[in-house]
TrEMBL record:
Stated family: Belongs to the carbohydrate kinase PfkB family.
Native organism: Gordonia paraffinivorans
Stretches assigned to the Carbohydrate kinase PfkB domain: 15-296
Originating gene: pfkB_1
Keywords carried by this UniProt record: ATP-binding, Kinase, Nucleotide-binding, Transferase
Family matches, as InterPro entries: PfkB_dom (IPR011611), Ribokinase-like (IPR029056), Tagatose/fructose_Pkinase (IPR017583)
UniProt cross-references to PANTHER family, sorted A to Z: 1-PHOSPHOFRUCTOKINASE-RELATED (PTHR46566), ATP-DEPENDENT 6-PHOSPHOFRUCTOKINASE ISOZYME 2 (PTHR46566:SF2)
Compositional bias (Basic and acidic residues): 294-304
Residue ranges of the region described as Disordered: 287-312
NCBIfam families in the cross-refs: 1-PFK
Name of protein: Phosphofructokinase pfkB
Molecular function terms from GO: ATP binding; kinase activity
EC numbers on record: 2.7.1.-
Top-level enzyme category: transferase
Length: 312
């Protein structure tokens, strides 16, 4: 049976609130906060579990914020493994201005990790990967964690014969080797190749450069509301976005997209259909509060609607 293992080196306790209006220098009264366990791999594991897939999250956790995240994951019924560190897990503060509907995100850097913390995390990933079909590493690295971490995870995936999926950016991406799938945004792809990438041909060429370097076999270039561009060594496909009446903040929608794509691949879907399902999940995440995973009925409905629009 397929089993999805996710890795979150820099989790966050997501705090969501609202204010009537943002005013510099003034005391702004926030609404009652909502708390969610956050961070790329955690969001992927929560969404995968909600979509009916078997999943486990390996997380780095410290202090009272880490314990709060663990409590929330346990309440959700998400299976997880903890790597303890001394410094507290970070918080992420997301505020919606009611007057405009705009969301403002304040993200802390995370705890300072040491070489021993990183080594223990890799051991935890290696142990959990023995029963995994897919290994998803998503999100940023905390201070002190070496970019080479992704190279070590790549070796674990190869040795344990897991399909590796990576959603990260910056210098860390240069260390990834042999992944099945990577998901940079257009901005992240621009930063990687240090080119403006103003149009589709340039974006396809940049994605193929990642494939040429053996970073990944498939590159999904996230285009936000416009959907995604799926690139392999010899094919490229446009997967349109899925429009929704936005109700939530959109925090974690990209992680939901990754989760649903991996779930669909684990079920034997083609890469294009899997990304279409992923886009539906990303859109459905906009319909839930905070960082709550998308509802399966919303994902299925939006996927059907998107598929129908393509056939009309």
């Amino acid at each position: 049976m397929p089993h999805i293992l996710t890795v979150t080196m820099n989790p966050a306790l997501d705090i969501h609130s609202t204010v009537p209006r943002l005013m510099p220098g003034s005391k702004m009264r926030c609404s009652t906060p909502r708390y969610d366990p956050g961070g790329g791999g955690i969001n992927v594991a929560r969404t995968a579990a909600r979509l009916g897939a078997s999943s486990t999250a390996v997380i780095v956790s410290g202090g009272h914020t880490g314990r709060h995240i663990e409590s929330l994951l346990a309440t959700d019924g998400v299976d997880f493994r903890v790597v303890r560190v001394d410094e507290p897990t970070r918080e992420s503060f997301n505020v919606v201005e009611e007057a405009s509907g705009e969301c403002y995100r304040f993200v802390m850097p995370g705890p300072q990790l040491h070489a021993d913390d990183e080594l223990r995390a890799l051991r935890a990933v290696d142990a959990a990967a023995t029963s995994a079909s897919d290994l998803v590493v998503s999100g940023s690295l905390p201070p002190g964690c070496s970019p080479g971490f992704f190279g070590a995870v790549s070796r674990i995936a190869r040795d344990r014969r897991c399909r590796l999926v990576v959603d990260t950016s910056g210098a860390a991406l240069h260390w990834v080797t042999g992944a099945y799938l990577i998901k940079p945004s257009v901005r992240e792809l621009r930063e990687f190749v240090d080119e403006p990438l103003p149009d589709r041909p340039s974006q396809v060429a940049a994605a193929r450069e990642l494939i040429r370097r053996n970073i990944g076999q498939v590159v999904i270039v996230s285009l936000g509301a416009d959907g995604a561009l799926v690139v392999t060594a010899d094919e490229d496909h446009d997967v349109p976005g899925v429009p929704v009446d936005v109700a939530g903040t959109g925090v974690g929608s990209g992680d939901s997209m990754v989760a649903a794509t991996v779930v669909a691949l684990a079920r034997g879907w083609s890469i294009v259909d899997a990304v279409r399902y992923g886009n539906a999940a990303g859109a459905a995440a906009m319909l839930t509060p905070g960082t709550e995973p998308p509802r399966p009925e919303d994902v299925d409905r939006l996927y059907r609607e998107a598929s129908q629009s393509l056939s009309d």
